[in-house]
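Many introductory courses stop at the sequence. We go one step further.
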Amino acid sequence: MGPVVIFALIGVFVASITDLCTRTVPNILTVPLAISGLVVAAWQGRLGGWDGSLVGLLLGLGLFLLPFSMGWIGGGDVKLLAALGALVGSKGLLWIALYSTLAGGIMALALVIFRHMQSGEFFKQLKLCMISGWLWLCGARGRRAGVPTPVLPNTANALRERYPYALAMAAGTLIAWLHGLLPTGR
């Protein structure tokens, strides 16, 4: 394991801890990570040198710019992905972004289910879904037949919650590393 992967793994795990505790990813973490990625790339001559690392940094900024502008993720998450791009280059960054997005979706779904379980709505809605599915299979199709319609009233509130997305990026980085998709260094 090269210094690039070590910096990336340590960086995302520290970012996860701060994101879990404060719901922010501080610049004091992301800026040194990005600079170290640029310096190590120039020193090792990997990824086309310094400019290859710069392309990864800019791609990291670009990939999460739309979700940031929509308010789905915070600015610290965007800067963390950019720093990871500087460390691992564009190819490794795309794998990290893909796995992070999948992990983030699973995490969000788990948190929505957890919130419904806390409010007691989850099991009511699950029972309603099972009853309506059973009635539908038995031939009672549509509202006219009295098929109950499941509704998730608290989902909008659960989806507005701020999730620690750095945790999903840590999972994505770890998965990409375990699959051998990150540069190994020299």
